[in-house]
UniProtKB/TrEMBL annotation:
SUPFAM superfamilies: Mitochondrial carrier (SSF103506). GO terms for cellular component: mitochondrial inner membrane. The lineage of its organism: Eukaryota, Metazoa, Ecdysozoa, Arthropoda, Hexapoda. This is Graves disease carrier protein-like protein. Belongs to the mitochondrial carrier (TC 2.A.29) family. Keywords: Membrane, Mitochondrion, Mitochondrion inner membrane, Repeat, Transmembrane, Transport. PANTHER family: SOLUTE CARRIER FAMILY 25. GO terms for biological process: transmembrane transport.
Amino acid sequence: MCSKTAVAPLDRIKILMQAQHKHYKNLGFISGLKFIVKNEGFYALYKGNFVQMIRIVPYAAGQFTAYEMYKKHLGGSFGQYSHIDRFLAGAAGGVTAATITYPLDMIRARLAFLSSGDSLYSGISDVAIKIFKQEGGFRALYRGYLPNVIAMVPYAGLSFYTYEKMKYLCIKHAPDYFCSKQKTNTGGLILNVFAKLLCGGIAGAIAHTVSYPLDVTKRRMQLAMMHPATYKYGLGMWSTIRMIYYEDGVVRGLYRGMTVHFVRSVPFVAVGFTSYEIMKQMMNLDTGMKV
């Protein structure tokens, strides 16, 4: 909740740019943010954030819990402190959480895409009902799920793996700079807040760069049935990827909005991992790390 609220304005402008909203397709993310405030008001920067809060509680809880469970279950299956274990546990945790909460992500994208004056939807329940009744039932709520899951493997896997790796390197090579004086009950070292933000930021930057084209594909598919001109993006993942590539290329198509996504991903993952670590310490659930 902390991390999503921190980057909610960037999330909204990213969605508008990815799906090439008619009012934003020629704007950058700074000019886009200014346009939203000028034409819709400051609170419009957080449009769709309420449903995001409803979604993110089970999503983040499921992701982090599943990650810890999968990591424990793998238990060094590929060797003690194996990189593969961490990657697989992170990927599986992300897929588990995404599967549970995907319909809420669909609803939130629809609400965030609406601009001032649009009256297509009146609220969260209205979006869900109209998608269900008009676009193909329960299956329609999972449109774009395949690219989301495929992207989740490198994204979640790399973010958890990179964070754990950076955490290990900080504790091993520079504990005087990156570790707090506080230790866990088992004597393990604990990263300070700056180090947590740094490790989380690097993890987010790497993971988002790899998985970004599939994120664009997912958004186009989620929003495909809102207007007749975009129905073509609802035909399937590979069809959507090909159309994005042929129409706009790689930079302006598959990586459209990457600048704002990159700016967003660093604080998003940094705040997320930092909040997670602090909550574990507050609840005495953090065993720390020994090297």
